């Protein structure tokens, strides 16, 4: 076969199907020679663990092979774009896509970028960076005509430097970046035959009562935006036509509803309102705010989360950490001698800070909410978390039960809220099946599966293996898995039960039960939350604003496609980011916005353009799909 000519075959043994075994570490990889190359090169790639025993000269050789292959792909892209680029004189494509080594300096633009230094090395690199900036931040193309914009470019690039025109942005660069994103997506799609994928349906309703759905697709190798449609019954249509698809509510949405219900409990709500009185006073007086930052070492008191309820509990935790510093600030000679000290609001803040019952309540709220915030972080990072969501929710409930071991009334109040949301809105048979297949749960002697979990696991198997020939020996394979026989019982498999992701574990050690392995990898490779994609609520309103109605429908679709995928790519590259905390404080939140003599439309006026035609009545759903790459599901 042609593929046997690849020099990298000398570093592995070919096995059945699309599997290869590394000759250095003996690890079995699904995905063939392509995955082996990333395994040996030690280059970062989702779902591929770097080889720990490969020789350095082999790593360098494979890196060179990958680099040459990427350069060849870019040449192909350039040829395809040549016809489009002739519409914008002066733009010549010589962009090269680089795959940086772990030791190299990270590029300024982390996805689809040729800008590998702070100062672009050519006008083409500069135009590319500018184009990506426009698309990623949803800027109107007419901004390119702004005199101040041109002055800024000349200050950065020298006298006479000009960025891409509105026409070049719309025609040349939009199509170029769309083509490059599409090529990357095709590489990701190749892995679906093994891992399956999750379809994310981000649904919301605008003020014109239009039901709009943004479709994303997620798998272990990456997440991408597919398309946006104006529809309300797509989910039911998919379920009826594709029997291997499971429909469930977004985990982060369900957890947010639980936290929202917590905040509605009378004593919790009173505590939040008192704490907000302190932050409003501080954040509405510049001198006091600067003094607060001095006493907290530059740290913010208000923490803005991905939802209002998340912000409430994160900020209460923050205030609890800074309690002594806040008291020290209000009692300091510097503050006491200031004109703010004798104001009624200031005196009220000092009384609240001295209220020991308030702080006991804050400690209680922090203790009860933290287990759920931990689950929210686990499911919101964009990684496959379906195998752990069942156990995570169980642990969160146990934490609440343990905290209130001496107060049965409060314990029941909080757990009833959790159970109502979990059982009625979120729980899916797929979650039970994922828990059953998760080795860290299955082989944990402290875990005893309820009968309903095993029953739902079998229900999922019936749906995913509808034909008798697909279920051949499946009962025996389940037994081998449960009893840890064959490869399941090897030392490596035992050691990896709690250290490797469940999907990866099955891919490496599930060969003793091939039919069950195929199902397990597909189930355990799915995400169960849309929170990664919820920060762009106004993107469609802005792109569909009246200023852009003259653009044709295809261009609007391309803008949305490039915008979302640039945002997803840049977010995926940020290390150590807390997935539930926003970088900037929401200056219109209840923790900051002053409410004395409020103007009900004041903050709306500031953002009228962003809210044109939209609202905050949102509904998020996550559709977990287990299907083949040749299922034409997007032809709806």
From TrEMBL:
> Where located?
Nucleus
Q: Which coarse location class applies to the principal site listed for this UniProt protein?
A: nucleus
Q: Which Gene Ontology terms cover its molecular function?
A: DNA binding; protein dimerization activity; zinc ion binding
- The reply to whether Kinase figures as a keyword in the UniProt entry is no
What keywords appear on the UniProt entry? DNA-binding, Metal-binding, Nucleus, Zinc, Zinc-finger
Q: By its UniProt entry, which InterPro entries does this protein fall under?
A: DUF659, HATC_C_dom, RNaseH-like_sf, Znf_BED
Limits of the BED-type domain: 3-58
Protein name, per record: BED-type domain-containing protein
């Amino acid at each position: 076969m042609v593929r046997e000519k690849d020099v990298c075959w000398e570093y592995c043994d070919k096995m059945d199907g699309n599997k290869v075994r590394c000759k250095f570490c003996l690890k079995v990889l699904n995905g063939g020679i392509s995955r082996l190359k990333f395994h040996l090169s030690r280059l970062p790639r989702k779902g591929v663990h770097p080889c720990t025993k490969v020789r350095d000269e082999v790593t360098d050789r494979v890196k060179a092979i990958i680099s040459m292959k990427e350069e060849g792909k870019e040449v192909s892209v350039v040829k395809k774009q040549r016809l489009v680029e002739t519409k914008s004189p002066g733009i010549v494509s010589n962009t090269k896509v680089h795959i940086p080594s772990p030791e190299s300096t990270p590029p300024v633009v982390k996805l689809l970028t040729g800008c590998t230094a702070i100062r672009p090395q050519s006008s083409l690199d500069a135009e590319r960076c500018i184009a990506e900036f426009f698309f990623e931040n949803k800027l109107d193309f007419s901004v390119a005509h702004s005199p101040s914009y041109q002055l800024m470019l000349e200050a950065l690039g020298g006298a006479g430097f000009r960025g891409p025109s509105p026409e070049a942005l719309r025609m040349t660069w939009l199509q170029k970046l769309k083509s490059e994103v599409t090529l990357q997506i095709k590489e990701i799609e190749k892995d679906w035959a093994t891992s399956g994928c999750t379809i994310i349906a981000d649904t919301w309703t605008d003020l014109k009562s239009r039901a709009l759905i943004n479709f994303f697709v997620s798998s272990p190798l990456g997440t991408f935006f597919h398309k946006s449609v104006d529809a309300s019954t797509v989910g039911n249509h998919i379920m009826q036509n594709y029997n291997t698809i499971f429909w469930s509510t977004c985990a982060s949405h369900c957890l947010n509803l639980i936290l929202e219900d917590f905040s509605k409990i009378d004593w919790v709500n009173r505590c939040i309102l008192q704490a907000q009185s302190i932050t409003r006073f501080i954040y509405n007086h510049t001198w006091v705010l600067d003094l607060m930052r001095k006493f907290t070492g530059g740290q913010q008191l208000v923490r803005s989360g991905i939802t209002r309820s998340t912000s409430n509990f994160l900020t209460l935790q923050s205030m609890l950490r800074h309690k002594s510093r806040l008291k020290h600030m209000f009692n300091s000679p510097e503050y006491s001698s200031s004109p703010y000290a004798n104001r009624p609001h200031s005196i009220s803040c000092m009384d609240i800070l001295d209220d020991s019952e308030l702080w006991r309540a804050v400690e209680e709220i922090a203790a009860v909410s933290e287990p759920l915030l931990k689950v929210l972080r686990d499911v919101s990072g964009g990684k496959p978390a379906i195998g752990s969501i069942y156990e995570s929710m169980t642990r969160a409930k146990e934490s609440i039960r343990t905290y209130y071991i001496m107060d049965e009334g409060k314990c029941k109040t909080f757990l009833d809220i959790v159970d109502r949301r979990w059982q009625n809105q979120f729980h899916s048979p797929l979650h039970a099946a994922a828990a059953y297949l998760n080795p860290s749960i299955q082989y944990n002697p402290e875990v005893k599966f309820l009968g309903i979990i095993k029953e739902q696991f079998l229900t999922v198997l019936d749906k995913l293996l509808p034909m008798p020939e697909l279920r051949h020996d499946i009962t025996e394979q389940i037994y081998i898995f449960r009893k840890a026989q064959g490869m399941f019982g090897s030392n490596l498999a035992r050691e990896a039960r709690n250290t490797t992701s469940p999907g990866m574990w099955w891919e490496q050690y599930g060969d003793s039960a091939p039919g069950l392995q195929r199902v397990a990898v597909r189930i355990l490779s799915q995400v169960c939350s849309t929170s990664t994609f919820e920060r762009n609520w106004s993107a469609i309103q802005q792109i569909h604003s009246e200023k852009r109605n003259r653009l044709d429908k295809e261009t609007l679709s391309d803008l949305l496609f490039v915008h979302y995928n640039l945002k997803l790519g840049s977010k995926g590259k940020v290390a150590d980011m807390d997935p539930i905390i926003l970088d900037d404080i929401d200056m219109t939140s209840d923790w900051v916005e002053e409410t004395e003599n409020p103007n009900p439309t004041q903050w709306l006026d500031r953002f009228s353009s962003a809210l044109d035609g939209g609202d905050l009545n949102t509904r998020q759903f996550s559709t977990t799909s287990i299907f083949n790459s040749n299922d034409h599901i997007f032809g709806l």
